[in-house]
Amino acid sequence: MEMMLLWKLIILLPFMNCNTEEDTLHGPIFTQEPYDITYSMGSADPEILLNCTAKGYPLPYYRWKQNGTDIDLTMSYHYRLVGGSLAINNPHKKQDIGTYQCLATNSFGTILSRKAKLQFAYLENFETKTRSTVSVREGQGVVLLCGPPSHYGDLSYAWIFNNNPLYVQEDSRRFVSQETGNLYIAKVEPSDVGNYTCIVANTKAEQRVQGPPTPLLLRNDDRSEAQLEC
Ligand SMILES: *[C@@H]1O[C@H](CO)[C@@H](O)[C@H](O)[C@H]1NC(C)=O
Ligand SMILES: *[C@@H]1O[C@H](CO)[C@@H](O)[C@H](O)[C@H]1NC(C)=O
Ligand SMILES: *[C@@H]1O[C@H](CO)[C@@H](O)[C@H](O)[C@H]1NC(C)=O
For residue 228, is it within any domain? Predict the structure, then answer.
């Protein structure tokens, strides 16, 4: 009886040595952790994938936390596990924004991944529907405020004049600040009179919105000076 066991060992041992590292019992180790993601609200892709993979033997199983709270993956069409990665279907800014962590567990224990931030690039519509008229004396300078709507992600700005399909071209008299979106016009001429509309674009969100027009008028100098003299 003992002899038989010894024989079995002698036969089996070389095979056991051939076994790869993965088959030796060990706790989970991450091979892929989730990274920060900025999801575009204008994106055609209806799913976000937060990556997570771990090796371990026995094979690990996975859980996820959002903002430190366990996500219920069982009763939801919103979430799906792809291996260890978390797929979020039809992402919503309000519900899904936050910090995510992956947990991998086997009989040896549980490991917790790095924190991955999920952000949403978006650009809302302008809140204001009308802008009050700006009046300026001929030859003076004026600033037209863009006042971009609520957003996440870098913005770029342009202006249109009346119904001209072309953007207002910057020149020695005209300047568009890419910091604020404001349009600066120096030495105003009668031909500058009209409606100015700010166009805001968020490349990351793949969205573009148009503000309400601001009418620019020339101020009647004589009358205001006459009134001041009284
Ligand atoms: C997630 O993993 C897939 C497959 O390995 C890879 O193509 C993709 O770039 C990863 N995404 C991120 C955000 O790391
Ligand atoms: C998660 O945290 C973010 C940032 O603090 C917060 O905006 C978001 O509402 C939180 N989400 C949930 C579901 O608690
Ligand atoms: C500016 O807009 C107002 C209101 O929409 C309109 O009545 C006016 O004719 C416009 N002016 C020009 C020069 O297009």
Answer: no
Helix (H, G, I), strand (E, B) or coil at 135: strand
Q: Provide the domain count of the chain.
A: 2
Given 105, 122, 139, the domain boundary residue is: 122
Per-residue pLDDT tens over the stretch 142-169: 999 999 999 999 999 999 999 888 899 9
Helices (runs of H) and strands (runs of E) counted in the chain? 3, 20
- CB 42 less than 6 A from any atom of ligand 3: no
66 lines ligand 1 (CB under 6 A): no
Cα of 140 vs centre of ligand 3, distance in Å, is 22
| Confidence (pTM) | 0.72
Q: Do 146 and 94 belong together in one domain?
A: no
148 and 90 belong to one structural domain: no
Q: Pick 4 or 161 by higher pLDDT.
A: 161
CB atoms within 10 A of CB 22: 10
